[in-house]
């Protein structure tokens, strides 16, 4: 529903042209930028908030065609793999659509990885071509690692020279701006974030369709659940290498909308971007909500966010009180989904329903949810266990690239079409799903199961806490005990008094066995901009190797 607040809506900047939002979209129309470059070549396809750089649909179409021609000339063919090691920039969309219109698999590489970590992904996915940004400090070292491995010799550098790479602009200038004779639809192959071990590639088979074929199912989800259509201006504050931001931004372009991308998230800058660009749709992670809520009230109220019709959030469980405060601030426009890069199922809940089911991530929209114990038996309502999605028979299941063992671990022990992301949760009597935590993060202390997410959700509400992670650490008698690793708010002194204050705060809100037995303070937690924590890094500080 539209934001109900009666705030004035200033006119759109002249560079945006919106279609009538009440006119139904055509779900049978071709869903890729080429369809709109023919009709609206001057419509903005993407705008960057920091540099104000932008590309029209006509420019995006021409550049993606040129890169597709370049790769085709190098001998890349449908089913081959390419990789992108890029910061948030216009070229990300050129690379994406060049791969998708060539029948290629595109693997976006986390731009925060070290050279060895990035090289592992480029090698593991079998990329035959790589596009990297000169703005990323280890791009040159990545090239050296690939040389040592004898992998991926075809490399293009964006935004400056990188030793061992050819120039991206020169390569495009030498290629024709016409479409390939055949344009089979490619796919992305994302790698898991590696928060609990080595990243793993998530591979799904190519569809066999052409890039301009209508995709009614995807279009219905984008339009129906998230209000993404030709009239929308979609704000993306997250890094594009992650599955959700790339899927939603390119999905917006598939529908003909305008994408506004923040090069880097900043709480106040995000509010300013909503106001300046009159954003109608956006997607966030809970840590972004927390940081915007902790802005001084006078800053929060300085910006007009009344243009927002839908604020999507996902990627991590959102503390109930944080979400409640966001609904009070922005109105009942929050829409939450629970899903993974594996694409094995999606749950969805809107604000009105969530207020009657606080803490839920909703009910499934394209699969059936089962909650099972360690042996695979289904559990009754209210009992936490491993969450499985059951897909229809005609849906192709994902695989973990080059890792049949991990693929097997993702399947139910007795029902091969039931797959899991490794999350723990429960269903209530009405079939609404509630997440508890990831199975790998569960703490077992004295035989009692403790879920860190519940404790984190409490501590993050304290005004002196900017971010927090709860982990289990070794204990001689109990096996594990609960430790909180806290990133204090700016200007807060991390000392014993703060630890005592946080312990009292937790004790008033949690059962005694859940209260952290110790607190450590750090300058910054190893959290990805996507909202996910590298908990394995934290645990490694406290657990003996091996």
Protein traits:
546 residues; alpha/beta; 17 helices; 22% strand; disordered N terminus
Fold and architecture overview:
With 546 residues, the protein is of the alpha/beta class. The strands form 5 sheets. Strands 1, 2, 10, 11, 12, 13, 14, 15, 16, 17, 18, 20, 21 and 22 form a 14-stranded mixed sheet that branches. The longest helix has 17 residues, at 57-73. The N and C termini lie far apart (52 Å).
DSSP strand tally: 27
Taking all residues together, what is the mean pLDDT? Answer: 88
Largest sheet: 14 strands, mixed
Q: Provide the low-confidence segments as ranges.
A: 1-28
Q: Given the C-alpha coordinates, what overall shape results?
A: globular
Q: What is the SS-derived class?
A: alpha/beta
Helix content: 25-40%
What Rg do the Cα atoms give?
23 Å
State the end-to-end CA separation: 52 Å
Strand content: 15-25%
**Discrete helix count:** 17
């Amino acid at each position: 529903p539209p934001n109900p607040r009666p705030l004035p809506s200033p006119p759109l900047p002249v560079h945006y042209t919106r279609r009538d939002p009440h006119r139904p979209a055509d779900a049978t129309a071709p869903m890729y930028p080429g369809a709109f470059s023919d009709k609206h070549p001057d419509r903005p396809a993407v705008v960057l908030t920091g540099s104000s750089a932008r590309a029209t649909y006509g420019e995006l179409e021409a550049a993606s065609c040129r890169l597709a021609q370049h790769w085709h000339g190098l001998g890349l063919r449908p089913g081959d793999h390419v990789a992108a090691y890029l910061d948030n920039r216009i070229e990300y969309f050129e690379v994406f659509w060049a791969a998708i219109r060539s029948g290629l698999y595109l693997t976006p590489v986390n731009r925060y990885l070290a050279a060895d970590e990035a090289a592992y992904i480029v090698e593991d996915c079998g990329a035959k071509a790589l596009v990297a940004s000169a703005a990323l400090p280890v791009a040159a070292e990545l090239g050296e690692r690939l040389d040592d491995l004898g992998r991926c010799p075809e490399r293009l550098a964006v935004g400056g020279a990188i030793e061992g790479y050819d120039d991206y602009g020169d390569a495009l200038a030498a290629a024709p701006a016409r479409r390939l004779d055949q344009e089979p639809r490619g796919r992305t192959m994302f790698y898991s974030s590696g928060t609990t071990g080595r990243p793993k590639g998530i591979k799904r088979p190519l569809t066999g369709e052409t890039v301009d074929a209508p995709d009614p199912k995807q279009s219905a989800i984008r339009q129906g659940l998230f209000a993404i259509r030709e009239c929308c201006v979609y704000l993306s504050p997250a890094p594009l290498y992650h599955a959700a931001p790339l899927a939603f931004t390119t999905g917006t372009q598939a529908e003909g909308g305008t994408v506004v991308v923040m090069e880097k998230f900043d709480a106040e800058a995000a509010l300013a971007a909503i106001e300046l660009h009159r954003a109608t749709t956006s997607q966030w992670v809970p840590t972004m909500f927390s940081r915007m809520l902790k802005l001084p009230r006078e800053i929060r109220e300085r910006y007009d966010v009344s243009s927002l019709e839908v604020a999507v959030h996902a990627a991590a469980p959102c503390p109930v009180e944080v979400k409640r405060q966001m609904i009070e601030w922005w109105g009942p426009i929050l829409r939450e989904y629970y899903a993974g890069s594996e694409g094995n199922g999606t749950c969805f809940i809107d604000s009105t329903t969530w207020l009657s089911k606080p803490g839920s991530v909703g009910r499934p929209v394209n699969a059936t949810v089962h909650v099972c114990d360690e042996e695979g038996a289904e559990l009754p309502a209210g009992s936490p266990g491993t969450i499985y999605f059951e897909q229809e028979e005609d849906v192709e299941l994902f695989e973990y690239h080059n890792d049949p063992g991990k693929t097997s671990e993702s399947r139910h022990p007795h029902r091969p079409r039931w797959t899991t992301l490794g999350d723990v949760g429960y269903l209530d009597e009405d079939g609404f799903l509630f997440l508890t935590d990831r199975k790998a993060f569960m703490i077992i202390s004295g035989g009692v199961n403790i879920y860190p997410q519940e404790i984190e959700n409490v501590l993050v509400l304290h005004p002196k806490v900017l971010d927090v992670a709860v982990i289990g650490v070794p204990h001689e008698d109990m096996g594990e005990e609960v430790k909180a690793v806290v990133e204090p708010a700016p200007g807060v002194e991390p000392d014993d008094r703060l630890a005592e204050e946080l312990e009292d705060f937790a004790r008033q809100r949690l059962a005694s066995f859940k209260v952290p037995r110790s607190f450590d303070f750090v300058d910054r937690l190893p959290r990805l901009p996507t909202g996910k924590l590298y908990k394995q890094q934290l645990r490694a500080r406290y657990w003996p190797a091996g």
